Structure formats: structure tokens, C-alpha cells
């Protein structure tokens, strides 16, 4: 209705008199009413917009001039969706780049490992066939050989001590059973009660002293096992790392020597510089591990002497007191070395634990 009124007002002819003044016509009132009606409608629309506010999801962007067609209207929802699609594609591209970077890094690591393994294998074969030179530290290698031989002998002592413990444990259990049998027979044989009683008391005393000696032997075995399986093994692991470093050092040293005998052009000089850097890295690693081995061998020797002095004294005093029948000296030996015996039946679970 408003559009029809405005179009009518726009197409009306306004007569002009001879003085140039507009004439007063009856249609002026209709034009003025149309203008007031249009203003009231625009004011209502403006109030409605101010109260409700625009919906951002339905906001449109107008492309083109005023009064253009609907083809120039672009919904903002489509722009939002395209931005989300762009961000998701960017994140997926970032994830692919990270994955590709990790794969390239692993490939480079495998390449370096393969190149290093090839060099070390070549150096090892050359040394075995007598065609390659190797770095030799006579004093240190002699100490390493002594340690390996000592470890074998201590493992033999440990194996024999465990065998002694097993046999002696069986003997103590036999004495315990024999003492119980003698005690039972002393009750059932009145004519031999005293004789069976004496033997039963002797076997029980031997059994008690045997359990005390077993405590001392078990402590001896545990200490030797710690020395052999942990302390010596830790030093031998460091020695193995040192020997691998020595092999790598000799491999890169031989490679540098071969390149130094070759041509001296720009490419060869670049390769020589790279080989010199690798050689220096391997040399520093070799010298560091060599120093670690020397220190560990020194501390191992001191620890071995200290531990074995205590354990051999314990073993001697306990065995001597047991076979001499000196129960007091045997118990004093265990107190001297702070050895506590487990009470009988300590290994057995209680009746509550068995339920």
C-alpha cells in the first residue's frame, strides 16, 4: 500500500503559476498524508529492529547497488562454514606435516645407524683378519681380563656355596626328624628311655646349631651374589660400552686416514672435514668411557676387598664354631656381623592368610 501511494505521489504533476510559485491543489493534502504514513511505518520498523536486534546467523551481505536482485545476497552462514572447513583442512595439513616430519626423522636415524653399523662391521672384520689397526691400552685391557677371570671364579664359589647350603639344609632337616623319632621312642620304650632321650637332645641341639650356621651361610651367599651379579656385572656393562666405543673410534679413524690419502679437491676436502668432525666426536666418547671404566675398576677392587674380608671372616668363624660344638661362639659370630635369624615357622603363612 505504501509503495502504491509513493509511486502515485512520484508520478503526480505539480503545476507552476506565472510567478514560479507552486499552486495549491487538492492533491497536496494527499501527498502530505502519504509522507506522514511512510514516516510512521519507518519509525515502527526501526523500533522493532532496536528491540529485537539482528540475528547474526541470518545476517546477509548485499552485493551490488541498492535494490539489486537476490543473486547478490550472500548468507553469512556460508562464510562461517567455509571458514570452518578451511580451519579443519589446515589442521589436517598440519597433522600430515608432523607425521611426515617424524617419518623423515626416523628415516634419517635408520640411515645413520646403518652407515655406522657398516663402518663398525668393516672395522671388526679387518681386525679379525689382521688387515686393520686397533687402539690398544695394554694396562687397562689387562685389568679387564683379570676382572672377567675373577668373576668366573667368584661364580664358582657362589655355585658351591649354594650347593653346600642345600646339602646342609637337608642334613638339618634329617637331624630334626631323627630327634623327633628318638623322642617318640623314648616315650614308647621304657627300657631304653634314657638312651633314646640322650640322642634326641643331641639331635635337637645339632639341629639348632645347624639352623644358626645356615643363617651365616645364607648371609655369605647373599653377599657374594650381590657382588657378582650386580657390582661386577655393572662394571662389565660399562666395559662393553667402552669396547663398542673403541670399535667405533677405530672405524672412523680408519675412514679419516683413507680420505686423507686421497685427492684434495673441493668435494674431497668437504668429506675430510665431515670425517674429522665425526672422528673428534667418537674420540671424545671413547676417552670418556675409558675414564669411566678406570674409575669403576678402582672402586670395584676396593669394594671387593672390603666385602670379601668381612664375608670370609664370617664363614670361617661360623664353620669353626659349629664343628667345634661351641654354640656360644656361633651365636656370638652372628651377633658380630648383625645377622638375625628367622624364627621357626616364619616362612609359613598364618591360618588367617590360608583362608
What is the fold's blueprint, element by element?
Blueprint: H1 2-11, H2 27-52, E1 60-62, E2 73-75, H3 76-128, H4 138-188, H5 193-260, H6 266-323, H7 327-336, H8 351-354
Antiparallel strand pairs: 1-2
Helix pairs in contact: 1-2, 3-5, 4-5, 5-6, 5-7, 6-7
Describe this structure in a few short sentences:
By secondary structure, the chain is mostly helical. It has helices at 2-11, 27-52, 76-128, 138-188, 193-260, 266-323, 327-336, 351-354, and strands spanning 60-62, 73-75.
What is the straight-line distance between the termini?
97 Å
* Anisotropy-based shape: elongated
Count of DSSP E strands? 2
Structural class: mainly alpha
Largest sheet: 2 strands, antiparallel
List the uncertain runs: 1-28, 45-80, 348-355
Integer average pLDDT: 77
